[in-house]
Amino acid sequence: MPALFAPLSAPNPLGGKTLPKTSLLPLSLRPHRLPMASPARPMPITALASNQKNPLSSPSAASSLSADASHRDDVLRSVSAVLSICLSETHLDRTVPGIRSKTRGKVRDVYDAGDHLVLVTTDRQSAFDRVLASIPFKGQVLNETSLWWFNQTQHITPNAVVSAPDRNVTIAKKCSVFPVEFVVRGYVTGSTDTSLWTVYSKGARKYCGNVLPEGMVKNQRLTANILTPTTKAADHDVPVLPDEIIELGLMTQNEFDEVRSKALALFAYGQKVASENGLILVDTKYEFGKAADGTIMLIDEVHTPDSSRYWIANSYEEQFNAGLEPENVDKVWGLEFNAVPVYLGSL
To answer: Domain 177-290+307-339, CATH 3.30.470.20 — does that match?
Structure first.
């Protein structure tokens, strides 16, 4: 057997059923090592990730970079080195026996392997329903975060995970996916068209079957967590009432009731764990599917920085009382950055 491959029946961190030994998958999809900057000259690109003023955000700074060819080349080499380790595209359907087809999502590449799915979480960064860029090791963080939560929440609901043969890969049971995203919210916040603060600030006091009180302000905590399900229409999410889910035949009443209960329980548990670790789980989304034997299972991802909003707990009250946005550790920065043009001159 080539050293590059290992059987999918490798030890399963979640203790679940494994695939037949004949199935093969690359053990390492890319080098798991970050490039090191020269100690004599730190990579200029690090300034983009600091809290200091972006040195590339003004015309004069950009002009200076253009004039200093050596400095500009250092920046471009640093960018190139970082991007070279990004897992942006995968093609297991061309190289791995038993893979039947590929579906490319915004972040995940999903491969059909017969009775199972091979889900590869790439480094692609999406916002506003489109892919913006790739961030090194983002996929590994998302995949391993989900695996941890899948393991921790088995007392609430079964999940589709079978094994994880690579840092970016999860093998999952096939199931019939409910075409509904179960979004659970604990705070009035957000900036997208379907966010709770957006609709509330426009005067709505009923949303997805929930009655909202008057006088709430942005980033305020709700008196109780609420479920605001959405369904897909073309390339965007559409809020939907629970009754509409049943009427449209997306789920039966019993299925919806079971999933609603699981989603709220998952969120409450997630909030508890987050609180114990200095974070606030603000909102998130869950997806569920139904196995051939009728079992409803949690699928996709759980409580990742991509699917969830997290705030820093010990600064929330101070920020909120001052009318400032909470400090966050999720992908909201990407949404905000994408909404504001940045001047990069001729770089």
So the answer is: yes
